[in-house]
Amino acid sequence: MAEPEFEQARKELVSTLEASTLFQKNPEYKKALEVASIPERVIQFRVVWEDDKGQCQVNKGYRVQFNSALGPYKGGLRFHPTVNLSILKFLGFEQIFKNALTGLQMGGGKGGADFDPKGKSDNEIRKFCVAFMKELSKHIGADTDVPAGDIGVSPREIGWMFGTYRAERNRWEGVLTGKGLAWGGSLIRPEATGYGLVYYVDHMIHYASGGQESFKGKKVAISGSGNVAQYAALKVIELGGTVVSLSDSKGALIATEGPGFTPEVINKIAALKVDRKALTDLEGYDYHYVDGARPWTHVGKVDVALPCATQNEVSGDEAKALIDAGAKFIAEGSNMGCTQEAIETFEAHRRENRGTSIWYGPGKAANAGGVAVSGLEMAQNSARLRWTSEEVDEKLKGIMKSCFENCLETAKEYITPAEGEFPSLVAGANVAGFKKVAAAMKDQGDWW
């Protein structure tokens, strides 16, 4: 069976490992790559539930438990009609190395179902969550596999699934992350992916400018309008930048004139998303809406681009358009937000234009803040403690700083940049994450 998304993710990793000196210095790591490319376990199950008309409905449920060398499997649950094994394998594969880059003890996994929450009543979604968790609960646990939310799975759905797990297993444990604050959730978790993305890019800007620049005064194009995009936008504004776009599955909202999006507008958009409404329902604001489009070719001159919607949302042509628009930094808030052609376009420009080029930050590093705070939530649950938002935010900042520096220094070591050239952060992230996982697997006898 063809698995295009998984093959794309694997090819992206393999191409950068082969272009580095990793296999020259450690030829035995080729075997580690072969082993790590196959999930330890794939669980597929049916989910039977009753709709509001009393009719029986059935969906496919999945959990890909990809790699547990560094800790319990960790990765989100996605409820969306496009969910299939290829998408979950790609997400789980990326998750292995993303989790490794956080420095926390977490393996990689991903799961979900081809259930579409849109058009369903709250009662139907709750019934589906209960039926889904009754089966998934047999395969997860605080020291085995700790899922979180992803597309279509908000804290509300996490709550329903946690309650089902607790009833089925007669255990209260940190088996899910993204929980409510009153019952084991961590402060800063909803904000973490968006905040972490901006913290990572801030380090990119600081390094590229020799410490002379920050987000202050930068025009920033963002795609998406969900959790990641909202909090990335709010943090950009807090740091002095101007957000000029957001988008949803139906089109892009562009604000190239004036102050851009304000926190007030972003909060109104967040309320629309909770009600599962489109950006076209935003009233009282004079933004330019481009039907059926992504923002990249419509935003005009920008300094930073942050894809925060879904996979493959920046094409090769859109990558060229962003370069022509003067963008100097692009980093993925979404998983595999850029196509392989886009990545190659950014990397070629980085090599050819040295210090004046665009600089690309890959999702497995740039959007690791979400799973990092999930790991911090696991730690708080295990210790029966709760940290303040300031404590969690400081830890998040430290993790993103270490992640950036790890990518940077690994790139310098294994893909020596030319004089004046920015190091390849995508290669640095891939080598650093893979090396850590491969070494742990070897120590545990997974390959030799």
UniProtKB/TrEMBL annotation:
Catalysis performed (reactions): L-glutamate + NADP(+) + H2O = 2-oxoglutarate + NH4(+) + NADPH + H(+)
The keyword Nucleotide-binding belongs to this UniProt entry's keyword annotation: yes
Protein name, entry field: Glutamate dehydrogenase
Family under the similarity heading: Belongs to the Glu/Leu/Phe/Val dehydrogenases family.
Cross-referenced InterPro entries: Aminoacid_DH-like_N_sf, Glu/Leu/Phe/Val/Trp_DH, Glu/Leu/Phe/Val/Trp_DH_C, Glu/Leu/Phe/Val/Trp_DH_dimer, Glu/Leu/Phe/Val_DH_AS, Glu_DH, Glu_Leu_Phe_Val_DH, NAD(P)-bd_dom_sf
Organism of this sequence: Trematosphaeria pertusa
Site label Important for catalysis, positions: D150
Residues at the catalytic site: K110 (proton donor)
Binding, substrate: K74, Q95, K98, G149, S374
Lineage summary: Eukaryota, Fungi, Dikarya, Ascomycota, Pezizomycotina
Keyword hit for DNA-binding: no
Gene Ontology molecular function, alphabetical: glutamate dehydrogenase (NADP+) activity; nucleotide binding
A Gene Ontology cellular-component term: cytosol
Record-annotated Glutamate/phenylalanine/leucine/valine/L-tryptophan dehydrogenase C-terminal domain positions: 186-445
